Amino acid sequence: MEHRIGFVIASLLVATMGCSKDNDIDASQTTIVYCQGPVQDNATCEATSQVPAGALCVYGSCRAPCTSDAECEALVPGSVCLPGASGSGCRFPEEAKCHDATGCKGGLVCAAGECRAPCPDGHCWLQGLSCVSGACTGTAVGSAPEPQPEAGTDGSAGAAGDGGADGAAGSGVEPVWGTETIPSSCPQATGGPALVPVRGGYCIDATEVTREQYAQWLSTVPTTDGQDAWCVWNKDFTPVFKWPPEDKGSHAVVGVDWCDAYAYCKAVGKRLCGGIGGGATADAELADAAKSQWFNACSSGGEFNYPYGGLPGAGAQAGYDEQACNGADKGVNTTLPAGTCTGCVSSETGYAGVWDLSGSVEEWEDSCVGAAGKTDPCRKRGGSFITGGADPLRCANTAAVSRDSVSGNVGFRCCAP
Ligand SMILES: [Ca+2]
Ligand SMILES: [Ca+2]
Questions:
Q1: Which domains, and CATH codes, for the chain?
Q2: Which residues of 222-233 are buried (b: 16+ CB within 10 A; e: fewer)?
Q3: What's the 396 CA to ligand 2 centre distance in angstroms?
C-alpha cells in the first residue's frame, strides 16, 4: 500500500501542530486510550511515527487502526472509523468538532462540523468518503483503491489516508466515484430552472420552480384536459396563494396542488421528481438514494442528513445548521429569491449546484398512495421556512397530504428524465 500521500499530510501535521494541545478536543475528556508506551498520557500524539506499532496518530490522538465502523464498535461501543492523515482510526463522532477552519489545526479543514483531512484534488480515495467543503467526509469502508499517478507526477494528488489495511486493493481498482453515472448533458427542456446533472444518471432542477417560471407557463394558457385519471378534478392550474407573483417572481411558487406540479413539469419537458429510472417513488424507497431522485440529490447519494452535510452514522439530525437553509430557525419566516441561501447546497462532486432541497418550500414528489384522485396521500419533502427544528428539514424526512392540498409553503421542482 502506498503511503506517500498520507506522508505528505502527516508531514504537514508535524510542521504545523507543534506541541500545543489547544484543539477543540479536550484531551482530558478522551476516554479511548489505545497507545501503550511513552505517549500514553491522554493518548495524544503529533504523528504516527511517535506511537507504538499497531497504533495510528489520528487527529492528534492515538487510535486503533480500522477499516469499518463494526470493527470500532466491537472495540469501544459508540466509536466509529474515521479518516486521518495516515490512516483511519476509531474515535467518537463527537470529537474534533469545529465551526470554522480556526477550530482545526495541523492543516485540517472544517467540513460538516468536523476537522478533516483535506482532499486537494476534489476526490477522496477511501470508499465511503466524499470530498465536502474541501475535506474528506463520511465513514471509510474497507481499504482504499490505489491512486493511479499520472505519468510525470509524484502522485501527490488526492488521498487522505491509506485505509489502514495492507494490500487489500491492488492497482487498477476503479475509484468509487466512477461507478455511478453523472450525465454529460441534460435533456432539452422548455422552461423552469436550469437542469443539473447528478450522480445517479439523471438531472434535477437547480432550484424550486419560481413564480415567474410558473407564470410563464400559465401565460401559454395550458389546457387542463388530458391529465391522468387521478387528476381530472383539477380544473385550474392557477396557484391559490401568493398569486400573481408581483415583485416575488424569483421566489418559489407555492399554492399549487400535486396535479399542478405534475402538469407543469410534464409541459416543460421534464417530470415531477420521482423514482430513479422512471415512475413514482414507492413509500419504502423515499429514503433510498438508489431509488428516489429527490432524496438522492438532497442527501448526496445518502451520504448526508442535509444537503450541506451531517453524517447519518452520528445521528439522524447530526450536522444540522439552522442558518444554512431557509427553515424556521433561520428566522426569515418567508420565501427568499431561489438559491439565496448559499450554504444550502452540496459541495460534493456529482451533487453540487442544487439549492434549497432542505427548507424554503416543501416540494411535491411523484410519490402518492392510490389512484382514487384528490384524496390520495402524496409526499412532500424537505421542510420549509415555517418548519422549526432539525427533523423536518432532513433529507430523509417526508410528510404526506392529499393530492389536492394547497399551501403557502409547498411548491416543487422537476427532474429529467
Ligand atoms: Ca390546481
Ligand atoms: Ca425546498
A1: 8-138 (no CATH), 174-417 (3.90.1580)
A2: eeeeebeebbee
A3: 13
